[in-house]
Specification:
Layout: E1 2-5, E2 10-16, E3 21-27, E4 32-38, H1 44-47, E5 60-69, E6 72-79, E7 83-90, E8 98-106, H2 115-125, H3 163-171
Antiparallel strand pairs: 1-2, 2-8, 3-4, 4-6, 5-6, 7-8
Length: 172
């Protein structure tokens, strides 16, 4: 289970060994999106959904999950604003299994930004959790003197010829 908040939408993905059957509906006062996944039993991965919600997520306030009936798991997402959910299934690809994907977009068209522009803005911010404060960015001064050992590193390469690259250089 993965949750990706972005400024233009939030994506929730549930991964499974088999295709998931689901039903989705919305509730109000407070605004919520409910997803029932059929023929599934509650497990530790699904139980951990609440811990994955970030406080800076623009759409999801909180999430909870429970075994609604013996064959149905119910996920409830409490919302910060009215959203337009889009649910769809994705087939296995690369290292991923079957996936149920829910994208939450703002319900008001004026609130929705250009998705590509929003992704670029998020990318340009970088990983805010790992950014270093400006006072610590850049190299720190080294220690002068002879009390540090001198380290010399050699990279001998692999010693093999690369015919394709050699031809490219000759033809350039």
């Amino acid at each position: 289970m993965r949750i990706w908040p972005a400024s233009s939408y939030t994506r929730v993905t549930v991964e499974s060994n088999r295709l998931l059957k689901y039903k989705q509906f919305a509730l109000s006062n407070p605004d919520r999106v409910v997803v029932d996944i059929e023929d599934v039993n509650l497990n530790s991965v699904l139980k951990g959904i609440g811990a994955q919600i970030r406080s800076d997520d623009p759409y999801i306030k909180s999430a909870r999950v429970g075994q609604f009936d013996p064959k149905t798991v119910r996920m409830v997402f409490e919302l910060k604003q009215n959203v337009k959910p889009q649910l769809f299934a994705l087939a296995p690809v690369a290292g991923f299994k079957e996936r149920l994907v829910m994208d939450l977009y703002p319900a008001n068209a004026q609130d929705m930004q250009d998705p590509l522009l929003a992704l670029l803005e998020d990318y340009n911010k970088g990983d805010l959790d790992k950014q270093v404060p400006p006072s610590q960015s850049g190299p720190q001064p080294g220690k002068a003197g002879r009390d540090r050992p001198i380290v010399i590193m050699l990279d001998p390469g692999h010693g093999r010829r690369r015919p394709r690259r050699d031809r490219q250089i000759q033809n350039a």
